[in-house]
Design brief:
366 residues, globular, Rossmann fold, five-stranded antiparallel β-sheet, 8 helices, alpha+beta, six-stranded mixed β-sheet, OB fold (Dihydrolipoamide Acetyltransferase, E2P)
C-alpha cells in the first residue's frame, strides 16, 4: 500500500505545490523550516483543507478537490506521532494505549497489544503515568498508541525534535523496527540528515513549497544540486558491508571494494549498514597523502562540481560506486584545479563519523 499526495495551497505569500508517492516503509519529508513539510502532513491528517489536490492511501481517497471528497480526520485511519508525545497525563500508560485501541476497527485484540508492547519494550511501564516517564519512554508509548489504532498510514511530525541526543539514540532503533516489521506507510518529517540516512526508504526533498527531488537517501543526499538545508548541511550516505571488528574499537566497512574505518558498529560481519558522512568532514587531495592522522584515504573520481555564490563549493564524488560529497572553498577548488572526471583522494577522519549516522536493518538497543 502506498500514499499518493498532490497538493496546492497558499498561505499569504507562501505557495505549496507538491506531488509525490510514498511507498511502504518510511518516506521522509526533508527540508528547512518553512519549506512546507508540516503543511503537507497536516493536509494528509485532515487538519488542513488544501485549496486543491488529491490524497489517497492505496485505493482509498481521503481528499479530492475535483470530486469534492473530504474525509474528516477521525475517518482517515491515521496514527499521528507528534514532537511532544501528547499523552493524557491523568491516564496510565495502559490506559493511553487503550485509547489508541479504541479507534481500531477490531477493538480488543489482545494479541495486537501484546505484540506492540513487546516490540516497544514498554511492558514495565504500563502502570505508570506520563509524568513518571522519560522523554524517550513517552515517545515509545506514543508510538504504541498510534499503532494500536490499526492505522493505514502513520504520520510522524519531527518526533525526535524535542529530545536530547541520548533520548534520540534510544528512540531511533524503534522507528527502524517499525519500518522493518510493519507494512504501514510512514510519512516522517525531519530536518536532520542523520535521521534521514538511518530511517528513510525514500526521501522527498522540499524547497520553498516544492519537491526539489525524490528518491533514495543515497540519491537525494548525494546530489550537490539538492541541498534543502543549505551547503552547510550537505552530506551523503554510503551503502556499506561490515567486514570486521578491530580490538581498538574500530569497525572496518567495505563500500564497493573501498575500506572505511568508523567507530565500532554493533552489527555482525556481513551485515549491511548505511553511513552518513557530512560534506564538511571530507577533505580532498590530488595525491595520496602520507603521514596524517586521518585513517580513511579513499580513491575517488569527481562526478560534479557546484560552485556557490559564496566562498564554498560542493564536490560530488564516486567512491567505489557510492556517492560522497565534499565541501571545500572555491579557492581550494581553483588551486587544486578540480574538474569533472578527475581522480582524487577523499580524506575522512574515523571519529568524524557520528554513531547516530550509522544504521543497519532492525537494530535494537542492547
Amino acid at each position: 500500500m502506498s500514499l499518493t499526495v498532490e497538493l496546492s495551497h497558499r498561505f499569504g505569500t507562501f505557495a505549496l505545490d507538491a506531488s509525490f508517492e510514498a511507498p511502504q516503509g518510511v518516506t521522509v519529508l526533508f527540508g528547512r523550516s518553512g519549506s512546507g513539510k508540516t503543511t503537507i502532513v497536516n493536509a494528509v491528517a485532515g487538519l488542513l483543507r488544501p485549496d486543491a489536490g488529491r490524497i489517497a492511501v492505496g485505493d482509498r481517497v481521503l481528499f479530492d478537490s475535483a470530486r469534492r471528497v473530504w474525509l474528516p480526520t477521525h475517518r482517515r485511519r491515521l496514527g499521528y506521532i507528534f514532537q511532544d508525545a501528547r499523552l493524557f497525563p491523568h491516564l496510565t500508560v495502559r490506559q493511553n494505549l487503550a485509547y489508541g485501541r479504541w479507534f481500531a476497527p477490531n477493538v480488543g485484540r489482545s494479541e495486537d497489544s501484546a505484540r506492540v508492547i513487546e516490540m516497544l519494550g514498554i511492558g514495565a511501564l504500563l502502570d505508570r503515568r506520563p509524568g513518571a516517564l522519560s522523554g524517550g519512554e513517552r515517545q515509545r508509548v506514543a508510538i504504541g498508541r498510534a499503532l494500536l489504532a490499526q492505522p493505514q498510514l502513520i504520520l510522524a511530525d519531527e518526533p525526535l525534535a524535542a529530545l536530547d541526543e541520548a533520548r534520540k539514540s534510544e528512540i531511533l532503533p524503534y522507528f527502524e523496527r517499525l519500518r522493518d516489521e510493519t507494512s504501514v506507510p510512514i510519512l516522517y518529517v525531519s530536518h536532520s540528515p542523520a535521521e534521514v540516512a538511518r530511517l528513510a526508504t525514500s526521501v522527498v526533498a522540499l524547497q520553498d513549497g516544492r519537491v526539489a527531488r525524490q528518491g533514495s537517501a543515497t540519491e537525494v543526499l548525494g546530489d550537490p544540486e539538492v541541498t534543502p538545508l543549505g551547503p552547510g548541511g550537505a552530506g551523503a550516505v554510503l551503502e556499506t558491508t561490515v567486514a570486521t571488528h578491530h580490538p581498538d574499537g574500530l569497525t572496518e566497512l567495505q563500500a564497493g571494494g573501498v575500506q572505511l574505518l568508523v567507530p565500532q558498529v554493533q552489527r555482525p560481519p556481513g551485515a549491511r549498514v548505511r553511513v552518513h558522512v557530512e560534506a564538511q568532514d571530507v577533505m580532498l587531495a590530488i595525491r595520496r597523502p602520507e603521514g596524517i592522522s586521518a585513517l580513511n584515504v579513499l580513491p575517488a573520481r569527481i562526478l560534479a562540481l557546484r560552485i556557490g555564490d559564496g566562498p564554498g563549493a560542493l564536490v560530488q564524488l564516486d567512491v567505489g560506486g557510492n556517492l560522497l560529497l565534499a565541501r571545500v572553498t572555491r579557492r581550494s577548488a581553483t588551486v587544486l584545479g578540480l574538474q569533472t572526471g578527475q581522480e582524487v583522494f577523499a580524506v575522512l577522519k574515523a571519529v568524524s563519523v557520528a554513531k547516530d549516522g550509522i544504521a543497519g536493518r532492525g537494530i535494537l538497543p542492547h
